[in-house]
Amino acid sequence: MLQNIRIVLVNTSHPGNIGGAARAMKNMGISKLVLVDPVEFPSGKAVARASGATDVLDAAQVVATLEEALVGCNLVFGTSARERRIPWPLLDPRESASKGLEELQQGGEIALVFGREYAGLTNEELQRCQYHVHIPSDPEFGSLNLAAAVQVLTYEMRMAYLAAQGQPTKMNKLETTAMLNAQPVTADELERFYGHLESTLVQIGFLDPLKPRHLMSRLRRLYGRAGISKLEMNILRGILTETEKVARGEPHKRRDD
Amino acid sequence: MLQNIRIVLVNTSHPGNIGGAARAMKNMGISKLVLVDPVEFPSGKAVARASGATDVLDAAQVVATLEEALVGCNLVFGTSARERRIPWPLLDPRESASKGLEELQQGGEIALVFGREYAGLTNEELQRCQYHVHIPSDPEFGSLNLAAAVQVLTYEMRMAYLAAQGQPTKMNKLETTAMLNAQPVTADELERFYGHLESTLVQIGFLDPLKPRHLMSRLRRLYGRAGISKLEMNILRGILTETEKVARGEPHKRRDD
């Protein structure tokens, strides 16, 4: 589905930015790059900044006009850094990804269009776009680097795509969760731990059974919040057992003796 | 509120990336930059890529270790490109922004930590972070440019911040949380606790310094997850101090004797 997204860079001045955009795209699983009248391309500077995304640069299509770049596109988003005199449907990157994904899911092709480093897109170019997208930057310092803007919009597209696929947006989320909580302790195991903790604290003289104050309830809140696994519980119980031994004056023992 | 976010770049090789990161930060309204042992800084290449964000570079703090960079931080997010053997609470950038914002709303300070261009953060550095953040890039081409990664995470922070400005309904829940964790511990306090914990475990013979295995990292994960308050930290440190006394064979003492 991501192959139906094209990234269109209009009249880019610095070839390094083309390379940076190619890298950002490839990081997000997007490969179709269209360059409208680039100032310098191909370029060694683009290859250097692409940092391995040379396949994206090699396959880039170079055209003379925005009109050619958009042939076959069903939905076009134009990035806009400034307010325009002509009001236009304005989206933030997340909304644009959501709308773009709808189009992709219906089998359509979409374009994300990025303007010149200093001047952005002209009004005429912006009027070829159904939607304008604005990255909500600080108004006092609003203009992102071109490759950084490509990174943000393609990141949002990928987030929307992964969410729609039902895929985790983090690597091995399920595995991590599974391992972390693989065997969560049960309430009774937790109670036995608190009992063990309490008696150990009494043995080392930290807890006075006659003046317990709120000590145990504070410790219950802390450990209860952490969501302890069985493995972690074994470690904590092991620490308590060794502490009891030293409190009884038994010789210290290494785990592996 | 955004002024309580610090961006920490560890051992950056290319000064251009420091400049790109500064620009990305300033675009998102974030200004506090901390550089841990940068290879080349200050640098004209950084200024060139910063493209006007020279105030961020000028105010950047240069320190020798990650530990120094995190002094005073309540919540630390470390970016991670690869799988680790020991699973850790893993967030995507949006989730990290949501968690980070909660901490900021309680008056805390947070850090987003970014590793070396090629090698990322070491396991030891990652263990100083309560959460790991992974940008859901294409597994086949997963490594983003450093400044691009800074752009994505700071963009999500800004999106969360702007959304929160328009939603005052969350205040009651946050106030409750704020009261529970009235004074969250800072990263340096947490590190001192881990040091105390480790030496105590050695003293009672539970931890063999020659065969440490993953014990300390597992305990770091557990306590890091819990979000310990200053009050709770005092209790835990008190327990360790009493345990050390019994390990040394000193007479047990009640708290109120």
TrEMBL record, chains A, B:
CDD domains according to UniProt: SpoU-like_TrmJ
InterPro entries linked to this entry: Alpha/beta_knot_MTases (IPR029028), RNA_MeTrfase_TrmJ/LasT (IPR004384), SpoU_MeTrfase (IPR001537), tRNA_m1G_MTases_N (IPR029026)
Signal peptide limits: none
Places the protein is found: Cytoplasm
Highest taxon in the source lineage: Bacteria
Reaction catalysis annotation: cytidine(32) in tRNA + S-adenosyl-L-methionine = 2'-O-methylcytidine(32) in tRNA + S-adenosyl-L-homocysteine + H(+); uridine(32) in tRNA + S-adenosyl-L-methionine = 2'-O-methyluridine(32) in tRNA + S-adenosyl-L-homocysteine + H(+)
Catalytic activity, EC: 2.1.1.200
Keywords attached to this entry: Cytoplasm, Methyltransferase, S-adenosyl-L-methionine, Transferase, tRNA processing
Residues covered by the tRNA/rRNA methyltransferase SpoU type domain: 5-155
Function, in words: Catalyzes the formation of 2'O-methylated cytidine (Cm32) or 2'O-methylated uridine (Um32) at position 32 in tRNA.
Family per similarity comment: Belongs to the class IV-like SAM-binding methyltransferase superfamily. RNA methyltransferase TrmH family.
Subunit comment: Homodimer.
NCBIfam families hit by this protein: PRK15114.1, rRNA_methyl_1
Name the UniProt record assigns to this protein: tRNA (cytidine/uridine-2'-O-)-methyltransferase TrmJ
Organism: Pseudomonas fluvialis
